[in-house]
Structures are given as structure tokens and as C-alpha cells.
Q: What sequence folds into this?
């Protein structure tokens, strides 16, 4: 059991935050977990969170990998997703009759675009050694205009049954489609980690690129690879987002989502300067952020002021998880334990230390 | 000289969970003496220093500073009482000037009088004989001078005790002597100096007294003149001394027709070593000897393609092969344990297990990860074989001692079963016990047919293990020694005369 605890110690923060939010919600109203069936599909607070966080979860996975390998963040993800989804929408709109095949081909096409955008950022970072944030600033600045040019007009509408079903529910399936797609995506990522050395390579490159190179790993290739994976993540997130919305709004689609994605990575216990990482943490972090957004709504805080509350919450969270507070808590805990020990069983305590000393001498 | 005691520690004990780091240790520092604190890694040297400087509190015992009982709760208190500490890694700001580095953070006023500060710095530098100007940038000074400036910063404030924790580990011989001059100057002023190092020669050259610790216990305090090197080593180790003398070199059987394992012709790299030839036979141990900066590491790195290869031909067992990246070298069965363990060797946040399997895993390929069980088996096998002291294979490598980290890197390469292994300073900065273990391992591997290149700053180690030494100076090969020529004086002679011998140019 202690080994298990140690193994999941990095998840303490996101899980405790989530628990705290659940408690707040339960105090607000005991019906928090209630799930209702509407037209054969589940609705309620929890399904809403899972539904709402889909894009963020997928992007957080990519962000975790990019952060771990390149020691920096990609801030162009929301914009990249807007471009990939613009290509998807154009392909679908230009097809006469929309079939499942049209959608699949359109999606694959948008994945190719995502790979190209990832390759663009990845080349700048790995070959030209541009800081990831600066490199992705280029797409961040110009990307929405590119998406608008692809659209050709403001907000083309995606009005077909299949898109509608991808964005909401497929009749007969009780779970909303974006939730299913997210779970499938997470499963694919899990398979990727199981069948390759991605984790070992990325962590090695993120911690010590020099040593990585001397042991036969090419850090440039690995950093480039993480940006390619990020490209796929943006394509999938863009696909889900545009089908949810039913129209392609090149100005507001997934606007500023990179901020939440970076936050999810941080809440998940990941260092923003690379190295060891936890995808599970980032995923829980992403759901936590969505839960926080919805909790603030549920507490009937005025929408205009909601961001202030979110900011305050995040500041508290970050301070509590900072190394300074952690060391302080650990010391306090140690002192408390020794105090309790000295009160309850002074003799036994003294005996055990001499035992240790004796064993050492042996 | 008056032997007035400035610092006295009595019955100092300090425990960490499960370990008794110090067990009623006594220590006495007199005015104007250089006192070496010796012991293997884990003997308790650093703990003792940290108790003196207030980083750790003590569990039991008494510390008196000039007759006054003290109990520091924080390092600043120790500093204010005149205890200065200089660590192995230079903790200064490279982009500031010398004077700024000496005084910044010292004054509490918001306005800095630059002129006055520079004048004061110039005075102090001059009086200590440090060859630096107050206004030059710190990066433009050599490592030794930077180290001296760190000392100047520490002694500036009415310093009574100066603690030097491995100050010489990144300095070359000439620089060490400059540092020693400064230490003698401070000694003459009555500063008590506590000196920690792994270099035995330096201890005998500079120290007046030696205190030896072993496993957290005091072995004794000795006048340096009353001890021989061998006696000191045996006090530090207890009983492994015999092992050193037992090391038997392996002489490979070489005939004119035997094909070398590795043959490099005209190798050169971007790190700036002159094109050189290098040959090693099966089961041979050879080494690059030379001073720091002579090009011995650069040559080793050129063989492994650790720096960008700029020219040369390579043959492995007679077959011409291309080695342009470390991965090529690894696939040809070459291993390289780098000189800079922290910077190029360990992946500090990863577990001992991941650090051990890393290179074999890379050889196996990106799409073929080892199962956890398999990795665990490999790790446990080598933890046992090399006697690596780690709580579990899952422990991050950064929490191991230097010697054990080095063994993990060694395990990483042995696991790949290389035909030719280059060990660049494998014994630097690690305790004597592990040094001996590594030398013995080198011989054992050679006996089993592995070819090894062994590089060390300590020439006696190389003479003990290598059957052939390639001597380098100013980034080129100036001579080669084998058989009976392998003595320390001969190596020195070749270095001293190096480059002048016409038949070698």
C-alpha cells in the first residue's frame, strides 16, 4: 500500500482539488450527481463536465508531451485547431452529399494539416532552437486569418445529420459522442505508450538532452515527434469543437484554450520546464478545470466576474502546491508525528532508535 | 605558531531516519591551521560541515566557537559569526563583474557606491594576491580565479573559519597551486581552514592536520607529517587497502597478424583535437594520459563521435564502418562513459532502473519496449553485480551518492555488452573504495575479452590498470608508453618533453 501511494503521489493535487470541488457542489445542492435521461442519452452535471472538457483533455495530452520534451509550451494549439477544422468544414461543404466516408476523409485531411502545422512548430523548435512559446507565437498571431481565408466567409454552417450526431449524440447510444471520442483517443494514447518507448525517450530528452544524445537518442527527432503528436491532438480537438458548434467561427473557436491546457498540465503535477511527466495528471487537471468553470456557474456567480474567482482559485492552488509550502507542510507533519510519538510511547521510541543504531553497527 | 583553538565540537551526533550519520564525533580546529577532513562518501564529512554551518541542527553534542557555546539555526547566523563556506560548484553570477560578485547582497543600503566598491575589491584582491581586476566580468576569469574570488567573498567579512568543500575538483595542477598559495596566505592571517578533497596528494601538500571519519564515526585526528599516504588510505577504508596492491594487470596477447577490435585513422572532431590514429586489440586496456585540457577527453569523444566528427576512417575488426553519431558507435559495440557524470551521464529524475536499461533499450528500438518485469530483472542483476547501494531500483538516481551514480552508468554500458568500452574519468569525485572496485572491474572485463580505454587524472590508477598509455599534450599525441616504461616519472618526462621530439611529429 505505501508503494501504491508513492506511485500516485503526483496525483494528490489534482484529485484533492477535484474532491474539494465536489464537496462545494454537494453543499450547494445534494443533486449534484443526479443523472437524467433525455431522448435516450444521459444528462446531468457529470456528463456535462465530461462533454465540455473533451477538447481540453485532448489538447492537454499534447501539451504535456511538448512541455516534457521541449521544456516549453505551444501556445498556438487553439489556432491550429481552428485551421484544421476549417479545412475539414470546407471539404465537407464541397462534397455534394455528406456520407460517413466524407466525414472520415475530411477528418483525415484535417489530421494531415495538423501534422503539417505541428511539423512547422517542431522544425522551428528542434532544428532552429527557437523557444517553443516564441515559435508558436507565429501561428498564434497569424493562424486565425489563415482559417478565415480558408472559410472564405464568416462562420460557414455545418448542417448535416452526421456532424450533428458527432457533436451531440448518436440515437441509441446513451453517452454523448464527444465523450466517447475522448475516451477512444485516451485509449489510443495509452496503447502508444504501451507499445513504444515514448515515455522513456521524452523524459530522457527533457531531463538531459546531452546524455540522451550520448546514449543514442536524437533529441531533435523526439522534440519534433512531440510536436507532430500535438498536431494530431489539435486536429482531433478541432474536429470535436466544430461538430459541437455546428458552424466554423474562425474568430472564437477554442479561443485562448492554450491557457487552460497549460494550467491542466500544471495542475496535473507536471513541471513546466520539462522532464518527468504524467498524462493521467494532465487529464484529471483538464476535467478539474471544466468542473471549476461549471461550479462557478452553479454558484450563480455573475458571468462577468467569474474569471476573477477562477483566478483567485488558481492562485491558491498554485501556492499550495509550490515547493515552499510542500516543504513547510512536510516539516510540520514530521514535528507533529514526533510530538505525538513522544507523548504516547516515550520508552518504546527510545528503544527503537537504539535498535537502529545497533543494527547499523552490525 | 600558537595553537589556539577556535572551533571545538564534542560528541556531535546526528541521525536521519534509519541512518546514524554522525556518532559522537569530536572535531577541533586551531587558529591558522589547514585541517583536512577525510573519509569516503557517506563517512559523514558533509553532515559535519552542515552541522557547523547551521544547515542541519545537531541531535546531541556541544559546539564552542572561541570559547562561546553556539547553536546555529540558519546558515546566515554562521556566516555572521565568521564562518565562510565555499562549495565545489562555484556559486557566483558569471555575468557580473568581479567586484559585484564579491559584494553584492552584502550591503543593506539601496544605493551602491560603485567607485568605493571597486576600490575595496581591488584592495582585497591585491592583498590576497588574486590576479583579477574588479571591473572585469567573472566569465573572463579562469576557473581557479573564480574559485579564489568565491573565497575572497567568503573571507571578506572578518572570517575566522573558512570551509572549502572540494574546491580543487575542477582545477588543473597549475590552478591548484595558485589556490594553495591563497590558502597559505589566509593561514598566515590566522584563519582556520577546513579542507575537504578526494585528492590525497593535495592533502599531504597543504594540510597541517587530518581528521578521518568512517561510517559516521571518528577514526582519529593526526598530524599530517606523522602519516603516510598508505596509512591514511587504510584509516579511511578500514581493510580494503590490500585490494589495491592485489590488482594484476591484464596483458593481451598481441601478434602481428591479429586484427584490432577498433582502428581509427586520422580521427578529428569539432572539439579541436589534431587528427590522430588509435588502435586497440581484443582484451587490451590502454589509456590517454595527459594534463587537463591536453585533449585526452576530446580524443575519447572523437572515437565515440560524441562531438561532431570532422574526419577520419574507422575500422572495426578490419571492416570499414561509418561512425558519425553516438548511435552508430553504440551499434558497432562501442560504449562511452562520459567525463561529466552530471551533465552527460545521469538522467537525474529517472529511476536507477530506467538509467540502467536506457542504452540497451535504445539499441533494441523505439517500438520494442522492455516489459517492466524484464527491466526489473536487468536492473536487479546489475545492482547486485556492481554492488550498487540504492534503496530500490525505483529510486531516482539523483538521490544516490556519486560513486553509486557512476556504477549505474557503468551498469548501463555493461548491459549493452560492448566490445570496446571507453571510460573517461570513471573515478573522478568518488570515494576510494569505489575507485578500487572500478579498477578491479576494468581488469576483470579485459580478462573476459573486452577492450577498454581508461582515462584518469590520477596517473597511478592508469599505470595500475593500463598495459599501454598514449600520452597527450596540447591536443596531440606526443608519445606512447608500454611495459617497463610505464612509470609515473616516465609519463611526466614525455609530457614535459612532448612536442619537441622530432620523430613523433
A:
Amino acid at each position: 500500500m505505501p508503494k501504491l501511494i508513492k506511485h500516485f503521489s503526483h496525483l494528490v493535487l489534482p484529485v484533492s482539488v477535484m474532491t474539494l470541488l465536489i464537496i462545494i457542489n454537494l453543499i450547494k445542492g445534494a443533486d449534484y450527481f443526479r443523472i437524467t435521461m433525455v431522448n435516450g442519452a444521459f444528462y446531468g452535471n457529470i456528463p456535462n463536465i465530461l462533454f465540455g472538457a473533451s477538447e481540453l483533455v485532448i489538447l492537454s495530452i499534447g501539451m504535456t508531451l511538448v512541455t516534457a520534451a521541449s521544456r516549453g509550451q505551444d501556445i498556438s494549439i487553439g489556432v491550429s485547431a481552428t485551421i484544421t477544422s476549417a479545412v475539414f468544414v470546407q471539404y465537407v461543404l464541397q462534397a455534394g452529399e455528406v456520407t460517413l466516408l466524407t466525414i472520415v476523409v475530411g477528418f483525415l485531411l484535417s489530421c494531415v494539416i495538423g501534422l503539417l502545422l505541428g511539423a512547422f512548430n517542431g522544425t522551428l523548435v528542434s532544428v532552429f532552437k527557437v523557444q517553443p512559446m516564441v515559435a508558436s507565437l507565429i501561428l498564434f498571431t497569424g493562424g486565425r486569418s489563415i482559417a478565415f481565408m480558408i472559410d472564405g466567409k464568416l462562420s460557414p454552417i455545418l448542417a448535416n445529420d452526421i456532424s450533428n450526431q458527432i457533436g451531440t449524440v448518436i440515437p441509441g447510444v446513451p453517452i454523448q459522442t464527444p465523450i466517447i471520442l475522448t475516451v477512444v483517443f485516451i485509449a489510443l494514447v495509452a496503447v502508444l505508450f504501451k507499445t513504444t518507448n515514448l515515455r522513456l525517450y521524452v523524459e530522457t530528452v527533457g531531463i538531459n538532452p546531452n546524455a540522451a544524445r550520448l546514449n543514442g537518442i536524437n533529441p531533435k527527432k523526439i522534440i519534433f515527434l512531440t510536436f507532430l503528436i500535438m498536431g494530431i491532438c489539435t486536429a482531433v480537438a478541432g474536429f470535436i469543437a466544430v461538430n459541437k458548434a455546428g458552424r466554423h467561427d474562425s474568430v472564437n473557436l477554442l479561443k485562448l484554450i492554450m491557457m487552460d491546457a497549460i494550467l491542466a498540465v500544471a495542475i496535473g503535477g507536471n513541471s513546466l520546464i520539462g522532464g518527468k511527466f504524467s498524462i493521467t495528471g494532465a487529464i484529471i487537471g483538464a476535467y478539474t478545470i471544466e468542473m471549476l468553470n461549471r461550479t462557478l456557474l452553479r454558484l450563480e456567480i455573475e458571468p462577468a466576474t467569474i474569471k476573477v474567482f477562477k483566478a483567485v482559485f488558481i492562485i491558491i492552488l498554485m501556492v499550495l502546491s509550490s515547493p515552499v509550502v510542500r516543504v513547510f507542510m512536510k516539516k510540520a507533519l514530521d514535528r507533529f508525528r514526533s510530538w505525538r510519538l513522544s507523548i504516547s510511547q516515550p520508552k518504546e521510541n527510545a528503544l527503537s532508535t537504539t535498535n537502529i543504531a545497533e543494527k547499523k553497527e552490525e | 605558531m600558537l595553537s589556539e583553538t577556535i572551533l571545538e565540537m564534542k560528541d556531535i551526533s546526528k541521525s536521519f531516519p534509519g541512518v546514524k550519520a554522525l556518532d559522537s564525533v569530536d572535531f577541533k580546529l586551531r587558529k591558522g591551521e589547514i585541517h583536512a577532513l577525510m573519509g569516503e562518501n557517506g563517512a559523514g564529512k558533509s553532515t559535519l560541515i552542515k552541522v557547523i554551518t547551521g544547515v542541519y541542527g545537531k541531535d546531541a553534542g556541544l559546539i564552542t566557537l572561541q570559547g562561546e557555546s553556539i547553536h546555529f539555526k540558519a546558515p546566515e547566523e554562521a556566516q555572521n559569526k565568521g564562518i565562510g563556506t565555499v562549495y565545489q560548484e562555484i556559486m557566483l553570477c558569471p555575468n557580473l563583474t568581479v567586484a559585484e560578485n564579491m559584494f553584492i547582497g552584502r550591503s543593506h543600503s539601496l544605493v551602491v557606491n560603485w567607485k568605493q566598491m571597486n576600490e575595496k575589491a581591488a584592495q582585497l584582491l591585491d592583498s590576497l594576491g588574486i590576479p583579477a581586476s574588479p571591473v572585469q566580468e567573472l566569465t573572463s576569469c579562469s576557473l581557479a580565479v573564480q574559485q579564489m574570488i568565491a573565497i575572497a567573498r567568503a573571507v571578506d567579512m572578518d572570517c575566522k573559519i573558512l570551509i572549502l568543500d572540494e574546491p580543487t575538483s575542477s582545477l588543473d595542477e597549475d590552478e591548484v597551486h595558485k589556490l594553495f598559495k591563497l590558502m597559505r596566505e589566509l593561514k598566515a592571517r590566522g584563519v582556520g581552514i577546513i579542507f575537504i578533497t578526494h585528492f590525497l596528494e593535495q592533502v599531504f601538500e597543504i594540510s597541517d592536520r587530518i581528521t578521518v571519519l568512517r561510517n559516521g564515526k571518528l577514526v582519529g585526528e593526526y598530524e599530517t607529517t606523522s602519516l603516510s599516504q598508505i596509512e591514511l588510505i587504510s584509516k579511511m577504508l578500514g581493510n580494503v587497502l590490500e585490494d589495491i596492491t592485489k590488482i594484476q594487470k591484464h596483458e593481451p596477447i598481441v601478434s602481428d597478424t591479429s586484427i584490432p577490435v577498433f582502428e581509427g585513422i586520422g580521427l578529428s572532431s569539432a572539439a579541436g583535437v589534431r587528427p590522430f590514429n588509435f588502435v586497440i586489440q581484443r582484451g587490451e586496456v590502454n589509456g590517454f594520459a595527459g594534463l587537463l585540457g591536453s585533449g585526452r577527453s576530446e580524443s575519447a569523444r572523437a572515437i565515440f563521435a560524441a562531438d561532431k566528427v570532422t574526419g577520419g576512417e574507422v575500422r572495426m575488426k578490419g571492416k570499414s564502418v561509418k561512425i558519425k553519431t553516438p548511435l552508430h558507435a553504440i551499434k558497432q559495440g562501442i560504449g562511452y562513459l562520459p567525463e561529466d557524470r552530471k551533465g552527460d551521464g545521469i538522467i537525474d529524475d529517472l529511476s536507477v532502473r530506467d538509467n540502467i536499461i536506457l542504452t540497451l533499450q535504445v539499441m533494441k528500438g523505439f517500438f520494442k519496449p522492455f516489459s517492466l518485469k524484464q527491466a526489473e530483472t536487468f536492473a536487479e542483476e546489475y545492482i547486485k553485480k556492481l554492488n550498487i547501494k540504492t534503496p530500490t531500483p525505483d529510486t531516482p538516481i539523483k538521490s544516490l551518492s556519486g560513486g553509486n551514480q557512476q556504477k549505474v552508468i557503468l551498469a548501463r554500458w555493461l548491459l549493452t555488452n560492448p566490445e570496446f568500452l571507453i571510460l573517461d574519468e570513471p573515478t573522478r569525485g568518488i570515494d576510494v573504495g569505489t575507485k578500487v572496485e572500478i579498477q578491479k572491474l576494468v581488469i576483470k572485463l579485459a580478462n573476459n575479452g573486452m577492450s577498454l580505454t581508461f582515462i584518469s587524472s590520477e596517473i597511478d590508477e592508469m599505470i595500475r590498470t593500463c598495459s599501454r598509455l598514449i600520452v597527450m599534450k596540447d591536443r596531440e599525441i606526443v608519445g606512447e608508453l608500454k611495459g617497463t616504461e610505464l612509470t609515473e616519472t616516465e609519463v611526466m618526462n614525455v609530457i614535459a618533453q612532448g612536442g619537441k621530439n622530432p620523430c613523433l611529429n
User: Anything to note?
Assistant: Residues 337-417 of chain B form one domain. Residues 10 and 26 of chain B are 5 Å apart (CA to CA). DSSP finds 18 helices and 20 strands in chain B. Chain B touches chain A at residues 15, 18-20, 23, 215, 304, 306, 325-327, 330-331, 336, 338, 343-350, 354, 358-359, 361-363, 365-369, 412 (CB under 8 Å).
